[in-house]
Amino acid sequence: MSVFILLNCKTYDEGTGANAVKLAEACRDVAESAGVEIAIAPQIPDIFRVASVTDVPVYSQHIDGAGPGSHTGKVYVKSIQEAGAVGSLINHSERRLTLAEIESAAEALKKNGMKSVICTNNIATTAAAAAIGPEYVAIEPPELIGSGIPVSKADPGVVTGSVEAVKKINPNVKVLCGAGISKGEDLKAALELGSVGVLLASGIVKAEDPKAALYDLVSLI
User: Fold this and answer.
1) So which residues are the catalytic ones?
2) Please, what is the Cα angle at 119 between 117 and 121, to 5 degrees?
3) In the chain, what are the domains?
């Protein structure tokens, strides 16, 4: 099974500007060494900076379904694609969207050959997201995000339930496990519960040594 890790820089100083490039370089080195795929989601202004100097897959933290035209402030899919992104997060718990907005964003990405990672907070929303047909759904109970308590331990049922729900609706959609992920045992547990990888942020981005933290993350697989 191919393991996928997506590192979300959020708006942490440790993942901003030149620091985003350093994180991407750490992702590249660990991915090559461990034989896994590690992608990074920097802030939108940093997409080009990161994509132009590394070959790490770069995702946007948000995308809107708006097309070309009078949409001031919207994130246009072709803009992030031209900057070097290969896909985008949609509906992160810190950037919630309506179902119509989620569908519109996912469709815009699909039309441009880009990947979608739809974030969900429970089994029901995971099932709804799977029906849209993204490449990934990432199950993240919001109360566990940034808590240091991995969802794979605190609420394993939401992961296994999400995996089963996705299989019934669209078996081509892959499930990622998020919230509180930071250590090798967390990734190992997430994989054992049926996910193909993890979406994580502060446990790596804010670590004293992000590369060492990434090596620890992949140490048990």
Assistant:
1) 92, 140
2) 160
3) 4-62+120-217 (3.20.20.70)
Long-range contacts of 209-212 (CB under 8 A, 24+ apart): 210/14, 210/22, 210/23, 210/26, 211/26, 211/29, 211/30
- Residue 73 annotated as part of some ligand binding site: no
Whose tokens are 């202004």? That residue is: 45
Q: Give the pTM.
A: 0.94
Digitized pLDDT (tens) for each residue of the chain, 221 residues in all:
589 999 999 999 999 999 999 999 999 999 999 999 999 999 999 999 999 999 999 999 999 999 999 999 999 999 999 999 999 999 999 999 999 999 999 999 999 999 999 999 999 999 999 999 999 999 987 665 666 666 666 667 888 899 999 999 999 999 999 877 888 998 998 899 899 999 999 999 999 999 999 999 999 88
- 201 annotated ligand-binding residue: yes
CA distance 114 to 121: 23
10 belongs to an annotated ligand binding site: yes
Q: Phi and psi of 180, rounded to 5°?
A: 75, 10
* Distance spanning both ends of the chain, measured CA to CA: 11
Q: Is 7 left (phi over 0), alpha (psi -120 to 50) or beta?
A: beta
